[in-house]
Amino acid sequence: MKVEYYKEYSPSLGRDMKLKVFGHAGKPAIVFPSQCGRFYEYEDFGMINAASEFIEQGLIQFFCVDGLDWETFVNGGWPGDRLWRHEQYFNYVCEEVVPWAIDMNAYGSHYRAGGCLATGCSMGALHAANFFFRRPDIFDACLAQSGLYSCRSFFNRDCREDGIYFNSPIEYLPGMNDPHTLDLYRRSQIVISIGQGAWEHECLHDTRVLDGILRRKGIPAWVDYWGHDVPHDWPAWRVQLPYFLGHML
């Protein structure tokens, strides 16, 4: 398996950012880490190994980005500053990482991908869904595993900053009526998975809310509810990942 490590300066963030790339060809996938996780987390918790068959066959190429939650959602600072920092992170991924990843992917795949897959577990699922729903012009697939789909719980309940709304899919999607954007959603692959076991209660609630919104909007999505023995934890996500990739790729 081809593995590459990069450390590059980000103009959007004003600092160096690290990432790892796994694979040589296939669908380009941007991987967001879990809460306060790092770019090496997906590999360390066995997710790359779980997907190795697809990677080695050249069906998918993972671009594992670094997180910045400790400066944004998981931070005790002023909400406006935190949300502004998240917008800088959003720009970093969308305007710096994605174009670079698509260019790099084209060399190995010998074609230019129409868009990227956004994926992640737990907090990474929130990021994956949020990036996908905000930018369906560059993300044409989403695989979100065990996520919350609102960032509101990371801020004071009385906070009225607009950035909370615009980074919470279950808040902004009900009002999304732009025909072009809805068409992009409907032509994309959307997979949302959730267990019903330990530590999944809050994520299960948000998944059901998101499921209902997508149904009402006529947006096709595979929302898959796993059993009561499936917890919010890496062993479950390792089983789910190759199962879903087998249907998506």
Q: Strands of the largest sheet, in order across it?
A: 1-2-4-3-5-6-7-8
In sequence order, what are the helices and strands, one letter per element? EEEHHHEHEHEHHHEHEH
Which structural class matches the secondary elements?
alpha/beta
Alpha carbon gyration radius: 17 Å
Mean pLDDT: 96
Shape designation:
globular
Helix content: 40-55%
The multimeric state of the shown protein is single chain
3D architecture notes:
- By secondary structure, the protein is an alpha/beta fold.
- 42% of the residues lie in helices and 20% in strands.
- The protein contains 10 helices and 8 strands.
- The chain has helices at residues 41-44, 47-50, 52-56, 79-109, 123-134, 162-165, 169-172, 179-186, 201-217, 234-248, and strands at 3-10, 15-22, 27-32, 60-65, 116-121, 139-145, 189-194, 222-225.
- Strands 1-2-4-3-5-6-7-8 form an 8-stranded mixed β-sheet, sandwiched between helices.
Topology, element by element:
Layout: E1 3-10, E2 15-22, E3 27-32, H1 41-44, H2 47-50, H3 52-56, E4 60-65, H4 79-109, E5 116-121, H5 123-134, E6 139-145, H6 162-165, H7 169-172, H8 179-186, E7 189-194, H9 201-217, E8 222-225, H10 234-248
Parallel strand pairs: 3-4, 3-5, 5-6, 6-7, 7-8
Antiparallel strand pairs: 1-2, 2-4
